[in-house]
Amino acid sequence: MKVFVIGxxxxxxxxxxxxLAAAGHHVSAGTRHVDQDFGPDxxxxxxxxxxxxxxxxxAMKGNDAVYFVAGSRGADLLQTDAFGVVKTSxxxxxxxxxxxxxxxxxxxTDPSKWHIGExxxxxxxxxxxxxxxxxxxxxxxxxxxxxQPGTLKDEPGTGHVALGVTxxxxxxxxxxxxxxxxxxxxxxxxxxxxxxxxxDTPIEAAVAEF
Length: 210
What we know:
Layout: E1 2-6, H1 11-22, E2 26-31, E3 42-46, H2 53-60, E4 65-68, H3 77-94, E5 99-103, H4 123-139, E6 143-149, E7 151-153, E8 160-163, E9 170-172, H5 173-183, E10 192-198, E11 201-202, H6 203-209
Helix pairs in contact: 1-5, 2-3, 3-4
């Protein structure tokens, strides 16, 4: 499958690009850092979330699926974390791409749970993700899947997760990337929100059982 990754230079993005290429997909790494080397099997594509929808659509054209894993880590919440989803989903539709996978944040669409754990200190981030997620669900015809993990950790993956969680938890970044890869062909997750944190079920099995 031909896959376009938005935010390829980020913590999750780098792992995701590597895993998608290892799985045999043709990967285009969308990034502002065009000098970054993602490996011989990955095409680096200049991509700026401050650009126009038309520019984004042209960059994506010809792909079968789009991943949005970009994040500003608080530095550009409106343009990147919120409006970035709006523009890239519009661009995907304009390019004729139906599959769109969004990396969001745990309980982003449920403000009643924003007091749980570290979410309590991320008010503006939660709001940005809330609007991005809802735009995708309410204003597009894309076959989306929204992955909402708990706190991301820079530590080795376990290969095991819990999906559909209702409590807080942590996620090694490699596990998040592996879960995103597994979701690509998972028709049972289309037009659904998938919450997650570390658990006891192997990733492929957890996705198949969701």
